[in-house]
Design goal:
alpha+beta; 6-stranded mixed beta sheet; 35% strand
Length: 103
C-alpha cells in the first residue's frame, strides 16, 4: 500500500476504496468487528490495520476522526471510520486490539 497524505476524510475513503480496493465498511460492535456489506463478523486477531489516517475538525480540533485501512485474514479489505467525538458508538477497546501491520 502506498503512503498517502490526505487533506479530507472523504478523499481518504474514496482513494482507499477506488485505488486500493478497500471496498468493505467495518464497524466495531460490542463483541466483534462487523463487515457491513458481507455481514461477516471478525475478532480483532482476525484483522490487521494496514494504515491509519487522522483528521481534525475544521472548527474544533477536538473533533477528531481516524480512518483505518483494514484487511481480514480471509482477504476482505475495507475501511473503518472512528470518530472521537462524544457521540461515537464504536467499541474503542475492541479496535485497539486489532494488530497494526503498517509498512
Amino acid at each position: 500500500m502506498k503512503n498517502y497524505n490526505f487533506d479530507t476524510l472523504s478523499e481518504a475513503v474514496n482513494t482507499l476504496t477506488q485505488e486500493e480496493g478497500f471496498t468493505e465498511d467495518f464497524e466495531a460492535e460490542d463483541n466483534f468487528i462487523k463487515a457491513l456489506y458481507s455481514k461477516k463478523q471478525y475478532q480483532p486477531n482476525e484483522l490487521k490495520i494496514l494504515g491509519s489516517y487522522r483528521f481534525e475538525g475544521m472548527t474544533n480540533p477536538g473533533d477528531q476522526t481516524t480512518v483505518f485501512a483494514i484487511e481480514a485474514n480471509d482477504g476482505t479489505k475495507g475501511t473503518m471510520v472512528m470518530s472521537y467525538s462524544a457521540e461515537h458508538s464504536q467499541n474503542v477497546e475492541l479496535i485497539r486490539q486489532i494488530p497494526s501491520h503498517k509498512d
